[in-house]
Write a structure and sequence with these properties.
This is SET domain-containing protein. With 701 residues, the chain is α+β, with helices and mostly antiparallel strands. Helix 3 packs across helix 10. The N and C termini lie far apart (94 Å). It has a domain of 226 residues: set domain protein methyltransferase, domain 1 (Alpha-Beta Complex). It has 26 helices and twelve strands. About 23% of the residues have low confidence. The strands form five sheets. It has a four-stranded antiparallel beta sheet with strand order 1-4-9-8. The protein has a two-stranded antiparallel ribbon with strand order 2-3. Strands 5-6 form a two-stranded antiparallel sheet.
Length: 701
């Protein structure tokens, strides 16, 4: 049987001769390495869609070579239609790959009856990838209080947004969850002699509900191997392979050149072996779609050009920069948080070399390292001092927390002495809250269906993330371990201080530079210092207040009369704009008009601060407790542990990493919110001062 590279090259694809697809990292993980220097824009891999494994509707594949067995496609199409299952790419792709692997098991890889993807299937890891869906229920408890909280658990639902909608209830439970989950997992391993208990895992439920009904009804397509009593172990491996390797692409009709709702999954030979980098500056390749109707796959315009193209559609991996020999090839699976990476691919974006087993280790070319040294003015260019330095991390703020804090604040204010308490009492009247919720849902602040299950997303400022991705991140430099803060290591003048410099020219140049430094005035030095400080501040990442959250809090804190006035005003504005019938109204944007009232500003800030505090308390552990436990795990030796115990420790570390990442966003949000309000107060004061000056000028005139 041909090797993977030979098979790809013989079937319309191409693997660059300067790549090693099967290089192994110290921890045993595979990685793709450049064996020779590769220039920018070089095509590293070209994989025709016909070599991928994917499921699509019959009409979408007419006239095209199928990306899964014809009989399998027909069975799945009929099954999904009869059971009214729509947009189930994970189920379909898992079943398609499972069928091909079982056919190879039955007939042998070299048989004509076996899979035409034999060389690709043979190259896949024989062991089951350690994905989240293989975690036991006890282990999933380690993710309490995160976006992956197991309190909402339905493996048959494909939409990540639906999962996030249900996190609110889980986070509201807060500290009721036990803190001893990790100890319970460790105890279960010890009692079982080193094997992790499988209790009721996602993959078991997935197999029983989604896979077994199809395979039992079609044994010729999914034959049970002679030495097996069930397809469950095979399903577990294949589902983990699909989850950890498949690429998500907008669903497309190949004939009509249109994208449809949902996504398709593609198992892409060769390219699926390339690791992910969370930071853009570490990436040296990009996956693209080329050829016939590639623009529609990407969800872009350009249908005319796509229809005119004759080349078969293909996935390509292109070098985005010079890649030196020995460098790891890295691209992006998407701008994904650690929770999304763990949920989708089974790893987290770890930058620390001591934690390399949780993720792909950092990779740099000599050119990159050299450029970083030249620009290394200080070690605080970007504030990525947290453990989890993934710039795509986020934290969810459930509606339940927002509602609870605003209502508590209104109750307290209604009991305060003074005439204003009457306004807050009216805001607490029955029906007012429900009217506000309906109003917010109608105007796009809350989701239309089940608005009380809305979550607000706290994420790093996009500008700060872009700056971090294009700059030198402290966490990355430390992890790589090649950049020393000692000037001597960077080859600067200070690096040879005290040593004999044989060339008189060099001595003269050094004297001239020293004289130039002394000639600078104090003002110039201070100016440079201020500019450098300002540059550092600008590069500090921040967590801006989501506009939806700001609007929601303001509406909830309005008195009954003020809320009625707002509704009337918005309704009148909608009528003036003559919104076309059937279309949703514009998203609510209150701007800063309400915040010009100082007392109301203070209420909004207090509510936001208390909401963040409440979400922080929803976690069963503090940030400091998680950090201590995390450092213990990654610093301790695992040589004496069994493979299963090492897997358990790895899962504990990844769960802690996800928790730390979300808590770091939350911690930064507390400071960012206060700073943003302070800046807003300052701008208002400046505007008021300008208005006063204008009034004085007018009076003088």
């Amino acid at each position: 049987m041909a090797s993977l590279v030979e098979w790809i090259n013989q079937n319309g694809g191409n693997i660059h001769e300067g790549l090693n697809l099967f290089s192994e990292q110290p921890g045993g993980d595979r990685t793709v390495i450049a064996t020779k220097d590769i220039e920018e824009n070089t095509i590293l891999m070209k994989i025709p869609v016909s070599l991928t494994i994917s499921y699509a509707e019959e009409s979408d594949l007419k006239g095209k070579e199928r990306s899964c067995r014809a009989e399998v496609s027909e069975v799945l199409r009929k099954h999904f239609s009869e059971h009214q299952i729509s947009n189930a790419p994970f189920v379909a792709t898992t079943l398609a790959v499972l069928s091909e692997i079982l056919q190879v098991q039955k007939y042998g890889a070299s048989s004509v009856d076996a899979s035409r993807w034999g060389p690709y299937l043979s190259s896949l890891p024989s062991e089951t990838p350690d994905c989240l869906m293989n975690w036991s229920d006890v282990e999933r408890e380690m993710l309490v209080g995160t976006a992956l909280d197991p309190s909402w658990d339905d493996p048959t639902v494909e939409s990540a947004s639906k999962k996030h909608e249900a996190v609110a209830a889980a986070m509201a439970k807060g500290a009721k969850k036990a803190k001893s989950t990790a100890a319970a997992v460790a105890a279960s391993v010890k009692l079982s002699g080193g094997s992790i208990q499988d209790f009721s895992t996602d993959v078991q439920r997935f197999f029983s509900h989604m896979v077994k009904p199809v395979t039992d009804a079609n044994p010729s397509l999914w034959p049970v191997p002679k030495d097996a009593t069930s397809l469950l172990p095979y399903c577990a491996r294949v589902a983990a392979l699909v989850q950890s390797r498949a690429f998500h692409v907008n669903a497309v009709n190949w004939i009509h050149d249109t994208t449809t709702e949902g996504q398709q999954l593609f198992m892409v030979p060769g390219i699926d072996m390339v690791n992910h980098a969370a930071h853009k500056r570490r990436r040296n390749a990009v996956m693209e779609l080329q050829g016939f109707q590639a623009s529609s796959l990407k969800g872009l315009e350009g249908k005319e050009n796509a229809n005119e193209a004759k080349e078969e559609p293909c996935f390509t991996l292109r070098a985005t920069k010079f890649i030196a020999a020995g460098s790891e090839i890295l691209h992006s699976y998407g701008e994904l948080s650690d929770s999304q990476l763990l949920q989708t691919y089974g790893f987290v974006a770890v930058q620390s070399a001591s934690s390399s087993s949780l993720s792909s280790p950092p990779s740099q070319t000599p050119k990159e390292a050299e450029n970083e040294d030249e620009n290394d003015d200080d070690d605080e260019e970007v504030s990525y001092e947290g453990v989890a330095s993934n710039p795509s991390n986020y934290c969810l703020i459930p509606w339940s927390a927002v509602q609870q804090q605003t209502q508590s604040l209104l109750v307290a204010l209604s009991k305060a002495p003074g005439s204003a308490s009457k306004t807050f009492k009216l805001a607490l009247k029955p029906g007012v809250l429900e009217s506000k919720i309906a109003f917010l849902a109608h105007h796009g602040i809350l989701q239309q269906v089940a608005p009380k299950r809305t979550n607000f997303v706290l994420a790093f400022d996009s500008d700060a993330v872009a700056e971090a991705n294009s700059s030198t991140a402290v966490g990355v430099r430390r992890a790589v371990g090649i950049v020393s803060m000692d000037p001597a290591a960077r080859g600067g003048v200070a690096g040879v201080a005290g040593a004999a410099v044989p060339l008189a020219v060099a001595e003269k140049k050094e004297e001239e530079e020293e004289a130039e430094k002394k000639s600078k005035s104090k003002d110039e030095k201070q100016k440079e210092k201020d500019e450098k400080s300002e540059k550092k501040i600008k590069r500090k990442r921040s967590v801006p207040i989501p506009s939806e959250l700001m609007n929601a809090v303001q509406v909830l804190l309005l008195g009954a009369n003020e809320f009625k006035e707002l509704v009337d005003e918005i309704s009148a504005a909608d009528e003036d704009e003559e919104i076309e019938k059937g279309l949703p109204p514009p998203r609510l944007d209150l701007g800063a008009s309400l915040l010009e009232d100082e007392e109301f500003r203070e209420l909004v800030l207090a509510c936001l601060t208390q909401t963040l505090l409440a979400v922080s308390k929803a976690s069963p552990t503090t940030y400091e407790e998680d950090l201590i436990e995390y450092m213990k795990l990654i610093d301790s030796s695992s040589s004496s542990l069994s493979p299963q115990e090492q897997k358990m420790r790895r899962r504990q570390a990844m769960a802690l990493h996800v928790r730390l990442g979300e808590k770091e966003v939350l911690k930064l949000a507390k400071f960012s919110f206060v700073r943003q309000f302070a800046e807003f107060f300052k701008s208002l004061a400046e505007e008021e001062a300008e208005d006063e000056d204008e009034d004085e000028d007018e009076e003088e005139e």
